[in-house]
Amino acid sequence: MARLLLIEDDAETAEEVLGDLRNRGHVVHWEASGPTGRTAAVGGAWDALIIDRMLPGCDGLTVLQALRGAGDQTPALLLSALTDVDERIRGLRMGGDDYLTKPFALGELAARIEALLRRPVDADATILRVGTLEIDLITGIGHRGQRTLDLLPRELKLLIYLMRRPGQVVTRAMLFEEVWNYSFVPKSNLIDVHVGRLRRKLEAAGERSLIHSVRGLGFTLISDD
Amino acid sequence: MIEALRTTAFRWALGIALWSISLSLLLLAFVYWQTGTFVQAELAHRLRHELRYVAAEPGAAVSRLEIWLGEDLHNVRFAGLFGPDGAKLIGNLDALPLGLSPDGEVHRIGTPVMIAGRRLREELWMAASRLADGRTLVVAHDTDEIDRANATVLRALILALGPVLVLSGLGGFLLAARARRRVKATQEAIAQVRRGDLNQRLPVRGADDEFDRLAQDVNGMLAEIARLMEEVRSVGDAIAHDLRTPLTRLRARLERSRTGAHSLAELEEVIDQSLVWLDQTLSIITAILRIGEIQHKHRCAAFSRVDVAQVLAEAAELYEPIAEDKSIRICVEVTHPLPFLTGDRDLLFEAVTNLIDNAVKFTPACGLVRLEVSRRGAICILAVEDTGPGIPPAERDQVFRRFYRAEPARHTVGNGLGLGLIAAIVELHGFQAVITDAPGGGCRFEILCPTTIDRGALHTAAVISA
């Protein structure tokens, strides 16, 4: 359970987001304008902020910039109707931790908030372990139990990304942004095919499934012990 | 009429009239001046000649003077022979005129003379010369003749100026009126275009003058605008159609399952299906917006040096598993050395993945998709070839328009926006997209990227395999 602040001027979008995030067990507070949102952001101890890019009274980016300027490092996700790649880059540069383009699936937003709340584990570790899965980050060699995995570079990158977020839902768009470093939405089943391949390699000897599909959303890596 | 005075044509006509009048005046002034000078020079010549003739033989001077004066019927000639003391010896001049130097040259001097027994003061042209024996000889001529000649010429010139004024004014007016008529016809045509009739064209007289050429240019522009409007309209129709189909399906499904669903699981399944359809619809809208964004943006600020071979390799890698599922092989061929391209890496990647996506989609099982980067002179070529059905030459031009799909492709999944997106990206970079036949019988898409050859920019990338 996390305390979240949503700054969004469209009441109906806000209502959907509030409903969904509350169902997932979060405490969410809603502000509808830039200035009130900023006051609320400064006043409360929030775990994450969700800020719409275009707000009445004061732009979402300005709110974020003011907070960052005052030393507030609360993770923030920007929502925007602008699909432009440059806009995204600007948003991230101004202190946003993630950027989501409208229209979005509620699950996508929830997954990204989850990712912001649970910063990747073992950032300094040289060996990642999830259940029977193990990767040596220095040699780039992975093992499932005693079996050595034969992974292509991209598959290794994909697996490392998943292993740093065990039990967390990772969406296709997130994977494409973080593993492939491209920020447009790829054709629907491209990522699935890549993940499917990786999954087959992980379970080649009939082991238990590690990567699970989350219907309509993405994937999650769940420890097998 | 007041409005007519303000028109450019009229002002031009007025200008032309003023100019021709000024020219005439200048010409007339010159004629007047030249005539005067000529008459005067002629007279001076005669006076000098006579002076020399009389002075040539001092002994016969008196008789020669008398003959010269005797020939004068109109009292226009004057002469005098004066002794060394200045006393008059002969002639119709009373005294040696003051200020006349005996240098043999002709001077204009006012002096009193006797004409028909009356003393008058006359303006005379006169020349004097001192004879060898000390006497001074003066011959002179009335200036009236010259003045009269000058006056006559001046009068003639002033009389001629009237018609010149009238004619040039009339000419200017006619020219202005003619130009005004053409402008008016053009204005009327333009007014109709403005009222929405894009099929209206400006009048062309067939004279191939500047006016006609301008009108032809404008007509060409109107035709292009009409074509674009038509395209926009048909794109609008296509968008509406493509959006309506899944939405209609969705509506029917929701309506049916609201009453027809027997269990929560059934309802959930319907909702999941609905979400897929909605996502499809949204992806169409997103693609349209993206094309619009790319077309309207001046992204050059975000341009940087792009390693195309790497972009191609990454795109191939991205599609390799999906191609493998269809037993299609993707191979990448890079001819070194390659120049770096200046561009937007993300957009170029998007363009290439769209091309590969199409290629994989249209290539039957066990086919081959070939990616190629090569250089032809200063042009870098990105090519994607497949072993699919190809695109008929007649349809190649239309392929890059939004929403166009070649007939055989209608049954394949996709919204026809991929190539529109490629076209927008290619255009943004100032590149060129070309479709040809692949040697293997399929289709070959080429993106031609002009580069400025810079030896330092040539690089050799790692060997790439997919």
Folded structure, characterized:
Chain B: GO terms for molecular function: kinase activity. Chain B: It holds the Pfam family HAMP. Chain B: The chain crosses the membrane at residues 12-33, 156-177. Chain B: InterPro entries: HAMP_dom, HATPase_C_sf, HATPase_dom, His_kinase_dom, HisK_dim/P_dom, HisK_dim/P_sf, Sig_transdc_His_kin-like_C, TCS_sensor_his_kinase. With 225 residues, chain A is α/β, with parallel strands linked by helices. Chain A has helices spanning 11-23, 34-43, 60-69, 85-93, 106-117, 153-163, 172-179, 190-202, and strands spanning 3-7, 27-31, 48-52, 76-80, 98-101, 127-130, 133-136, 141-144, 147-149, 169-171, 211-214, 218-221. In chain A, the strands form three sheets. A five-stranded parallel sheet of chain A has the order 2-1-3-4-5, with helices on both faces. Chain A has a four-stranded antiparallel sheet with strand order 6-7-8-9, covered by helices on one side. A three-stranded antiparallel sheet of chain A has the order 10-12-11. In chain A, helix 1 packs across helix 5. Chain B is α+β, with helices and mostly antiparallel strands and 466 residues long. In chain B, the strands form three sheets. A five-stranded antiparallel sheet of chain B has the order 2-1-5-4-3. Chain B has a five-stranded mixed sheet with strand order 7-9-10-12-11. Mean pLDDT of chain B is 80; it is low at 404-413 and 453-466. The chains are: A alpha/beta (225), B alpha+beta (466). At the A-B interface, helix 8 of A face helix 6, helix 7 and helix 8 of B.
